[in-house]
Design a protein that fits this description.
The chain is α+β, with helices and mostly antiparallel strands. It is built from 7 helices and 12 strands. It is found in: Cell membrane.
Length: 302
């Protein structure tokens, strides 16, 4: 069946009465850019903020990573209107109103087929290809975040983006419901080159393919080469430590921060490992992607 949309008739009254609890935002389409799909679990009748507190300041921004698969950018139709998504969102720039969505859609499927997490750094947009990374800045207070666009919406004519609850809190407009923002597309390759010193570093193979196949312990051979996953690099040691703490609670591999000097400035690299083999590296990458922490680079010990 078709996914229901939020904010039907009378939504202005609801938002006025529940201003401190409700997102008062519009609904994204939650699967297939307007296609039909079943919800993953029952939803509460009213959207709004969670009834428990979590310090979202400790949630890191989404990490822009190059997308290697196909983008979702097919035309679709919602509420009698046709939408033609753009093929490339890296140069996208727009200023307008942002809203947010929360508990009613928590755990439901997004248009990208992922599970919506109100504490994830994600967003919905009508025409950006999925996925796209964007920087969103609240023009009233100059707060800025990076989010991963993985959903469709909002379908109010006066709103250009629908943020997760966590994103709205970090930008300082969750209680108000809407804010004027500037949205800027991000080129993940350029972002990685500027923020990740180990980006695209390839470890040398430890042996020829035939020798590796004959080895009785290939995992040990690969580990001895010193392979790690680098999740990011930050000018702020506090930001790096926050990410390290979050990662350590998610994976069993050691996670550590290493300061390095680059271009007369200190960067703090967040890495985990060593990883035992490429299969383990891929499993860890998928874990981090599902947690909206991106797909880290495979790097050597140096």
């Amino acid at each position: 069946m078709n996914k229901p949309l939020r904010n039907g008739p009378g939504v202005a009254v609801v938002c006025l009465l529940l201003a401190l609890l409700s997102a008062c935002s519009s609904s994204p389409v939650q699967q297939g850019q307007g296609d039909t799909a079943s919800a993953s679990k029952p939803r509460p009748a009213q959207d709004g903020a969670p009834d428990y507190f979590q310090d979202v300041s400790q949630i890191p921004d989404a990490v822009p990573v190059p997308h290697t698969g196909a983008y979702k950018a097919s035309p679709y139709r919602v509420l009698g209107r046709n939408y033609n998504p753009m093929k490339d969102g890296r140069n996208y720039r727009e200023t307008g109103l942002a809203s947010w969505y929360g508990t009613k859609f928590h755990g439901q499927l997004t248009a990208n087929g992922e599970s919506y997490d109100l504490y994830g750094m994600t967003a919905a947009h009508k025409t950006l290809p999925l996925p796209t990374y964007v920087r969103v800045t609240n023009v009233d207070n100059d707060r800025s975040i990076i989010v991963r666009v993985n959903d469709r919406g909002p379908f109010h004519s006066d709103r250009i983006i629908d943020l997760s609850y966590a994103g709205a809190v970090k930008l300082g407009f969750a209680e108000k419901g809407v804010a004027r923002v500037r949205v800027e597309g991000i080129d993940p390759v350029v972002w990685q080159q500027q923020n990740n010193p180990g980006y695209l570093v390839k470890a040398q193979p430890s042996a020829a393919p035939t020798a590796a196949a004959a080895s009785p312990a290939p995992a040990t051979v690969v580990a001895s080469a010193g392979l790690y996953l680098q999740v990011g690099a930050f000018a702020s040691d506090q930001a790096a430590e926050q990410l390290r703490s979050q990662l350590q609670g998610m994976v069993s591999a050691p996670v550590f921060v290493t300061p390095i000097e680059q271009d007369s400035r200190t960067l703090h690299r967040v890495r985990l490992g060593p990883v035992s083999d490429h299969a383990e590296a891929e499993r860890l990458m998928e874990t981090l992607r599902l947690a909206n922490l991106g797909n880290p680079s495979l790097v050597s010990a140096n």
